[in-house]
From TrEMBL:
GTP-binding is among the record's keywords: no
Organism: Alicyclobacillus tolerans
Cofactor(s) in the UniProt record: Zn(2+); Fe(3+)
Reactions this protein catalyses: 4-imidazolone-5-propanoate + H2O = N-formimidoyl-L-glutamate
Residues forming coiled coils: none
Role of this protein: Catalyzes the hydrolytic cleavage of the carbon-nitrogen bond in imidazolone-5-propanoate to yield N-formimidoyl-L-glutamate. It is the third step in the universal histidine degradation pathway.
Main location: cytoplasm
Pathway info: Amino-acid degradation; L-histidine degradation into L-glutamate; N-formimidoyl-L-glutamate from L-histidine: step 3/3
Cofactor note: Binds 1 zinc or iron ion per subunit.
HAMAP family: HutI
EC number, UniProt record: 3.5.2.7
Protein known as: Imidazolonepropionase
Amino acid sequence: MTERVFDSLIVHAQVATIAGSAPHCGSAMREIGLLNDAAVGIIDGNIAFVGSSQDAAALETKECLDARGRLLTPGLVDPHTHLVHSGSRENELAQKLAGIPYLEILQQGGGILSTVHATRRASREELIEQALRSLRTMLLWGTTTVEAKSGYGLDVPTELLQLRVAQELRKLQPVEIISTFLGPHAIPPEYQDRPDAFLEQMIQLLPAIQTEQLADFADIFCEHGVFSVVQSERFLEAAQKAGFGLKIHADEVEPLGGAELAAKLGAVSADHLLAASENGLRSLVSAGVIPVLLPGTSWNLRAKPARARFLIDTLQAPVALATDYNPGSCPTESLQFIMALAANELRMTPEEILTAVTINSAHAIRQAHRVGSIEVGKQADLCLFNADNPAYLVYHFGINHIADVWKKGQHVVV
Ligand code: NIG
Ligand code: FE
């Protein structure tokens, strides 16, 4: 082992390895494999050593960083965002503060549809530029892998453009992007009276997206006044046949049965779940669907948060957390802010939260074989925090605790 020359070695860190290949369920979410005075070595972009700083002293390395007892975690994984879009919706703040519900703003042609108008008008360059700014923020705040949905085109050219922009963004900056086709995100104005015809158009688009390898997942907004459970099943079944992994915006506002549908179809994740029925939650956990909770959205919409404690304690679920970054229901790129909300709003412990933004969120986008934990052979995606314990990260909220970030072994935030 000593003949190998390491590219980088990080020593004297408190390492949260969050190791283990399966999703971390229930009480196991609190086992973060904390190693005191530990070292992590990197060769060719991958983790090649995890052990004590004492053992690492014998290793030869080109670079060495002394973490001085601070917390080293896997790079954060954000498994649910609406990254590529144009504009912002602060013009809706007054309506929101006046108590007009989210779905009513959408019904009046605002909300998602207002972003659809802006996105359809934007050029490819404008979409790239706005998303690059968000990705830069994400990286500076510790996110090294992100899922990105389409869904602000609601027509063939703009949906494809959003997905192609996401593909191009991979080459322009370090954050890894996993794409999801969310064509049925709302009913566009030109199809208001013919939602089934719109859905059919989105179904017809699936093979082209698959052939061009523009997305790994397909998703739908299953919600009262948007797409029903029957329509969602039709779309998701077609997507599954076409080879996509399934995701679903489920039971965000009304207990419509999205959670039950996710279980029935064996979705990879079911996201939101604020209003999901107890039976729905039970069946999705039994079916191995990852519940992705989005406490930024419930907080921002001033809705009752999802039942994280029930999921973790009673159902022994592998909960994951995400930002849901989008210009309407949750305009933040910061997973660290979501982590603070997960403590305060969802009553999750700091250890559960770390697990939910690393290995479990990696499972929610089927990337856990490469990212989400600090283990030999995995990609060297790492965050060093200006914190010496996990509780400090969520307790001292609203600021950026990142000291350094590595992506594929590259020291991208110094
Ligand atoms: O996950 N609920 C549907 N979609 C997004 C919000 C998108 C928007 O408001 O622009 C969500 O909350
Ligand atoms: Fe969303």
